[in-house]
Amino acid sequence: MFCVYCGTKNADGVSICVFCGQRVHNFQAQPEAAAADAPKAPVTQAPPVQVTATVVVQKHSPESLPGRKSPSWLHTAIQKHPVAVFAAAVGILMLLPTFAMLWQWNANRLSRTHQLESLLKDAAELQEKSAQFTRRIQELRSRPTLAMKDYYDQCTQLEPYINDVTSATEKSRGLLEQVIPEFHDDAKTLTALNGMRKALELDQRLQNDVRQEVLLSKTLMHLEPSEQVEFYAMSIHPLQEEEKQLAVEEQQALTQMRDYSGKLPSSVSHSLLNQ
């Protein structure tokens, strides 16, 4: 035990501190003696406690589990309606060749349409060249009669130009003959194309007359002045009158063609009118 005065440790059972001489009180023995003398209380055994554990099991669907992707609509459809899905797949496979044929047919149709539009546009451009020549001849024939030498010079200037125009007219007629059979079941388009063909035929007849007139003008210059007037009146003047009439008919044919072209689809109309 320890001294309460100086804190020196003393042997158990010593009543006097060996260091300071003070009386040492034995505090540990007293509680133990009091506890020994106290009457013992009867010991009663507590009733056993019953512990009940409840385990709650929560069911989760496969879709709600973390990290688990929900099945696709196709997978779900196959599980629920396998026969219907199989029948639909077979139907799609059977229709694929039909779709492919329709796509190829439409592609060929569009290609053919573009080709026809290109031919029509080329024919219209060449026809416009012929029409310009016809208008020029019509304007020349409306002027007063020239002296024989001036008339000859005028024909000489027309000679190289008429060769170029005649070639354009022939090309335009050739293109038109390729296009017309494609519209045999389209009355409106066929009428417009026939109008263009008629105008080209008139242009060609006029060009032939002008070509013959150029040749006659060369003969004219080899004649005596007294013979030139009679030769001009008998051989050249009738050609000039026919050229005037052909130019009028050509303008009427072009007007009719433009009237019908306005009622056609825009792609064909623009090609015919060279727009």
Plain-language structure description:
The protein has 275 residues and is mostly helical. Among the domains are: 1-31; 113-272, Four Helix Bundle (Hemerythrin (Met), subunit A) (Up-down Bundle), CATH 1.20.120. It contains seven helices and no strands.
Q: In brief, what are we looking at here?
A:
By secondary structure, the protein is an all-alpha fold. Helix content is 68%, strand content 0%.
Please tag this protein with its features.
275 residues; mainly alpha; Four Helix Bundle (Hemerythrin (Met), subunit A); 7 helices; elongated
The tally of strands reads 0
Helix content: 55-70%
CATH fold naming of the domain at 113-272: Four Helix Bundle (Hemerythrin (Met), subunit A)
**Rg for CA atoms:** 61 Å
What CATH architecture label of the domain at 113-272 applies? Up-down Bundle
Q: What kind of sheet is the major sheet?
A: none
Mean pLDDT: 76
How are helices and strands ordered from N to C? HHHHHHH
State the CATH class of the domain at 113-272: Mainly Alpha
**Shape descriptor:** elongated
N- and C-termini, Cα separation = 130 Å
- Segments where pLDDT lies below 50 for 5+ residues? 27-36
Percentage of residues in strands: under 5%
Number of helices: 7
Overall structural class, as computed from helix and strand content, comes to: mainly alpha
Oligomeric assembly: single chain
